[in-house]
Amino acid sequence: MTISATDPNGPLYYNGWYHLFYQYNPDSAIWGNITWAHAISKDLIHWLHLPFAMVPDQWYDINGVWTGSATILPDGRIMMIYTGDTYDVVQVQCLAYPANLSDPLLLKWVKDPSNPVLFPPPGIGPKDFRDPTTAWLSPDGDKWRITIGSKIGKTGISLNYETKDFIKYDLMDGFLHQVPGTGMWECVDFYPVSMVGQNGLDTSVNGPGIKHVLKASLDDDKNDYYALGTYDPIKNKWTPDDPELDVGIGLRYDYGKYYASKTFYDQHKKRRILWGWIRETDAESLDLLKGWAGVQSIPRSIVFDKKTGNNILQWPVEEVESLRSSSVEFKDVTLVPGSIIPLEVHSPSQADIVVSFDIDKKTIEEAANMSYDCSKSGGAVNRGPLGPFGIIVLGDETLSELTPIYFYIAKAYNGKPDTHFCADELRSSKASDVEKIVYGSTVPVVEGEKYTIRSLVDHSIVESFAQGGRSVITSRIYPTKAINDAARIFLFNNATKAKVTASIKIWKMDTADIHPFPLDQI
User: Fold this and answer.
1) 3-state helix, strand, coil in the chain (%, to 5)
2) Per the residue annotation, which of 7, 128, 219, 287 is the catalytic one?
3) pTM tops 0.85, yes or no
4) Which stretches in the chain have pLDDT values below 70?
5) Cα separations in angstroms, 23 against 19, 26, 129, 442, 487
6) Residues 52-67: pLDDT tens digits?
7) Is 510 annotated in the active site?
8) pLDDT in the model for residue 29
């Protein structure tokens, strides 16, 4: 069997189970024949596959059951709005719901006879109208609102609709938001975050002490961008806090291979959880040979960063730590300039790594001003006074293959340190048909903080979180030598002047249990 798994869709928590739907091609390892696969879990870690939730079998979705979102109504009903691709290749919005709400597995789904419930409005292209969000309540509480991604020319836009019954909709005036030059917005997400509390918020919450996140997946460059701002429900407008960090031109969820993400409010644990699709970086022909493509990221919790006030924090859900088993720890390791230190670790290809670095302030102050850009840097081999320093994961014994995850401290022209967080994949694999680049971005480091990284290593995927999740990089790599027990983990400091002190703890990670649900036992 060959399969392709892509966008996460309609995640929700219902009657004791987490549900994840995702776009799936049961016939090939490349995109097409988009069907909604369905899996459930008690803990977001161990999953059971269920039969397909929806297949492309109606005129309005015969070319694909595309991205959608779930809204749980106060009376317990579930409304799933999704994009269908019609027989004549027009993107329309459709409604589905569970056939039996007393079934905690939500095995059967019904497509509403009124489908499609929304067509592209005047001025919007037939192929530029997709991916409805979870709905939120209007200020009076008598209607629901959704937003849908689109474009006009090269301007990315978010259309807003209002409905009472999820069948009849009114297009609202103007746009929720628009950003020139960003192109088609898809997989738009819109949700509140608390500036004062630690809990996540239901999508309908608004008021004092709340910011709203607006996120769009840009079809032009296949990256997920977000911005923080303020939502005015009366004017139905969202305004970014910083226009220079607007959607599509500023912050990203993830600076690696991560796309088409979707959040949901987990009412069970009062948190907001983010899912994302980790795309392949090898040749499509190789995907066909191996018979599959695409995986889902480790789910992440999202909170507002109270220290900086201008970004979110992403962190692996706490349940991931249930996979931790034995651990090793190395404290206060001195890394002189140019040093690489191998670490004796069991199961280095499946690990949870937490590391912190200290660097002498005086060294930073004395360094000359200079600029840096992860993507143009040439990676960890290129040295500067204050970097790079970090960890090497999935390296073989001779370092013919390696993936450094590192910091590089530059000095801005105002003399202040400018910290960059990077993942260097230039030598991650000996394979030739593999994308090999350096990912990364700047990351704020607040006064008094150490430089910290957490990396979840899972054979060919590395999800790395800097400074508690202010910046995240997902690496999709294909080592040929640094596999299983042949992989190694190293600490390194390739700076020319800075001496670094590192403390690191590494857990061996067990394997998640993922298999078909035993339907014959129901």
Assistant:
1) 5, 50, 45
2) 7
3) yes
4) 1-4, 28-29, 31-32, 522
5) 14, 10, 17, 32, 32
6) 999 999 999 999 999 9
7) no
8) 67
